[in-house]
Amino acid sequence: MRSAASLEILGLLVISWAGSGLAQSGCNGNYSQNYTASSHHRLVLSSPNYPRPYDDLTDCLWMIQTDFALGPDFIVKVTFDDFQLEDGSVFLACDFDSLTFYDGPPAESYSHLLGKYCGTIHPDVIYSTGRYLYVKFDSDGMTTRRGFRFYYQAVNIGVVISVLLCSY
Ligand SMILES: [Ca+2]
To answer: Cα(128) to centroid of ligand 1, in Å?
Structure first.
């Protein structure tokens, strides 16, 4: 169980690491990186080692934000391409390995859970409600799988709402 204080510390670490410009080399222990979502093309984010299995005791945290130049009307859209984690769905808790999405903005990111997934069950698409989306990947000390790969891009919220309304 994480306390609010430890989450705040984690948030500060995200901010400091995000500014450090580390190249992505996998997530051994704690690791973080921020990415900018473009409206022109989708970019890919995958688990460490993908498509080879991720390691035990991996703890990754990424921040995805829309390109600031796009302005406030753009949100982050995630589209799953591949998803295979250890299935630890005891009471749907995903206690073993998990991929979790949080809505921004940064200061409140961990209070806005969008979804936590494991096994092979996931939604097709995830949207943030604003410019920021946080992605957390955790694995425990035994049993690994292939991992995940998804695409992310910045999309206009007006277009998203139109599409969602038309789908009903
Ligand atoms: Ca595991």
So the answer is: 27
